[in-house]
Amino acid sequence: MKTAITPTRTENFSEWYQNLIVAADLAENAPVRGCMTIKPYGWAIWELMREQMDKRIKAAGVQNANFPLLIPIAYFNREAEHVAGFAKEAAVVTHYRLKMIDGKLQPDPDAELTEPYVIRPTSETIIGEAMSRWVQSWRDLPMKLNQWVNVMRWEMRPRMFLRTSEFNWQEGHNVFATHEDANADAKKMHKMYADYMRDVLAAPVIAGEKTPEERFAGADHTYTVEQIMQDGKALQAGTSHDLGQHFAKSFNIQYLGTDGKLQYAWTTSWGTSTRMMGGLFMIHSDDDGLVLPPAVAPYQIVIIPIVREENTDALNKYAEDLGEKLRELDLRVLVDTTDMRAPDKMWKWIKRGVPLRVEIGAREMENNSVTITRRDLGKESKQTVSVDELLKTAPDLMKQMQREMYERALARQQSQIHDVATLADLEQELERGTTGFFRIKYDLTLNAEFDGLIEKYKISRRCLDANDPSFVYVAKSY
Questions:
Q1: Pick the residue with more confidence: 28 or 309?
Q2: Over the Cα atoms of the chain, what is R_g?
Q3: Which of 12, 75, 169, 297 could form a disulfide linkage to 273, CB 3.0–4.6 angstroms apart?
Q4: What is the pLDDT of residues 324-333, one digit of tens each?
Q5: What angle do CA 2, 402, 356 make, to 5 degrees?
Q6: Nearest to 377 by CA among 407, 403, 356
Q7: Given its phi and psi angles, is residue 76 left (phi above 0), alpha (psi -120 to 50 degrees) or beta?
Q8: 357 and 346 in contact (C-beta within 8 Å)?
Q9: Cα separations (Å) of 179 from 184, 238, 242, 283, 348?
Q10: CATH architecture of the domain formed by 13-69+126-284
Q11: Burial of 227 (0-12, 13-18, 19+ CB in 10 A)
Q12: What pLDDT, on the 0 to 100 scale, is given for residue 78?
């Protein structure tokens, strides 16, 4: 069977993913190595994702702010354990002016900065410095801040949306009076991420705590949401960190307690990024292109008039009128009246993952009906219904598609989790080519033999089993 994306997922999943991005017109590689340009259709998806996430963030009592892109290198030196995780990826600004030298613009040797600046890889340090000024007493707590920004981490093996040197994200940074409050809030934001991915992205997750070997540098606890892609590899989709008092002590975040004594606060940080988009695409899409859940589809419905020269104006007007009625139901609708051939229009919107395709020809216009096809189910779902029925059922159909896409993804995820009793069993499965998550006793991974498997098979501990922390999930990852 002919497909829009070649090679197919089973033939070469990695290449299929790269070609999917191009076919759906989501992004392209930028002139800057390791970076990407997100195109309008891709950015529209991110805007919808961000809007839904931002509502949940604000509902948790968090306020948005914005902090500088450039961070003094001295700030990183105040938190050496934390910066060790980013040092090899840091991009550094060393000059403040260009000069024409030998006919080319180059950094002016006389304009070297006294102190270099690091382009923001994450903002714990600069936000911590601000919080040391903003937090004075127990009345200022809790302080909950978030920013939607771009960050830079120099990437040696880039892959669009999954790993790029520059990417967009939200990063939350909260301060509390007690460790109990901080840890509870880190878990709360962790749950918020898991609920968001289920309800908005129709994407199941495995939510749990990172092992000490894998936790965020400088954290007491790291909570992660892990996803399983169709090829069985893991994707870390979001993390929430209980930072203890490490950053509070490094940046002197103290408050005057009710007892009149000065004491250090407790901080957390939590973040998700455009990496979620890569996970969204890989979880749901097929060999014909993108498949989007209605909640984050730029257009939930596309109407395609099947015109002939003699009825073009009438049919286009009929389609536009229907589009307006659907928009009144708070649906995102596009009426494609371009002069492309009808089959080309269909393939265009199939590849872009529009949830519901509505076709209208002369016969449908005459009968006051439409032909509809669900993108998530393909041509098997094609049926003709009356316009009245479409208008009556379209909103509920979007909810149904959202729910069913999640249920199918969850069933696949459950089939990709394997229990193994010993390291020998784990190696046997890996050698056999079994993909997915392997659930094994955590203490079995604390030896040189497991370290050897990490090196040989490029696996890692993803997180502890939330239902039984004596077990850990192990997998290959993106």
A1: 28
A2: 26
A3: 169
A4: 999 999 999 9
A5: 50
A6: 356
A7: alpha
A8: yes
A9: 8, 22, 9, 36, 52
A10: 2-Layer Sandwich (3.30)
A11: buried
A12: 84
